[in-house]
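Methods — Computational structure assignment.
A single polypeptide chain was analysed. Its primary sequence is given first, followed by the predicted tertiary structure written as structure tokens.
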Amino acid sequence: MGGLLSYSLSVSVFILMLYPVLHQIINRSRHFRFNRLAVITGLLLSLALPCILDSTLISLPSETVVTNVDSVMNMNSTLSVMKTTSVENDSVPAFPWLSIVLIVYLSGIVVLSCREIISFLRLFRMIAISEKKIIDGVTICRIADDVIAPFSWGNYIFMQDTELDNSSCIYIHEKAHTVQRHWIDVLFADLFCILLWYNPFAWMTRQLMKLNHEFEADEAVINSGIETYDYQRLLVVKAMGNRSISIANSFASDKRSFRKRVLIMSKKRPPRKTMLIALCAIPAVALAGTALSMPVSSRFLSEISGYSLREELLSEETQPSSTPQVLDLESNPSKPETETHTVIPSPFENQKPLEDIIRCSVETIQPDKDTKVNIEIVVDEDGRVKDVSADTPDGAEVAAAISRNFNGVRLEQMIDSGRLVKVHFVVPVQLKKKE
């Protein structure tokens, strides 16, 4: 579940950067179909780009620069444990803030999902019990409650008896919603807001989408030949003070949206160059991607993504020790040593031996350009180095040299939570061209 929270945070960054652009498009452009496409594209980009950038959202420590064998390698900040339980040096257990945040986040998703389901059940009940009439291929459902404003969902339009005339403004307005399938957009926006329920910009983007839907439907009414002034008066009478349905496109509006709808009808259609505002989305997306690729951001998201609430609860039940322990091979008769190996200290205790191996491995390499590689070293439960790999083809030679120098070498075994653990080390190394 930590991965879901990490993903939603990444999506939040993108929608945060895109919202100002979408806000300007909706409020300045009267090309409503283009506006609708812009909002949907913005939501899709916010959902897709974190997945595309996922390979870069890896916690990378600070670089170790290796120039020659005499270089001083300060690796105190370059080793990181990728797949072990996080270890605290203090004997006092850390405050489980991540567990609390994850529980609150998941609870919000559950509550909003239940609310969405209940809203649909009420809607389906209204469809089932209402009197129906088919006009122009659209099902008209009669509603007796005068407090509820006319609304539409799917191929259904909900109206009072006095509004069933197929030439009425309300019918034309709601039919525009059904013909253009605005309910699909609303459902998509609702699911988006459930994922990002804590982010106000997600809800404001949903509001922008529904406002643009009303602009489109209002335009359909005006284009049908109805006088703008008469329609505005009808909005005042019908829309204000009536209760709307959140999951549907409702004729009712809040005061702010109502004011915008009335004003937009009186404006002349602006030139198409206003659509160029959408180009501002390019630097917005670039800025969001840069923010997520920063070491601090990527490290923070990686920590959340690798967190498991279930494992945390199980570890609390077993009361793990606060610091890792080095297993004494002599006191563990179940794993007899049958081969001769050089055992070096764990990098948790002493990083110098690992520094020496890496330094000796790269001293014979003559790169023709400055090269940065991330070397991943996998150490199994027995302390044997099982794999050495690089993240780029340029680092294959470095990985092979390090792997050769680990022949006959073991690391001290590590115990965490009372069991032997496999450890992954990631060591960034920058090779500079030798002159």
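Note: The chain has 13 helices and 14 strands.
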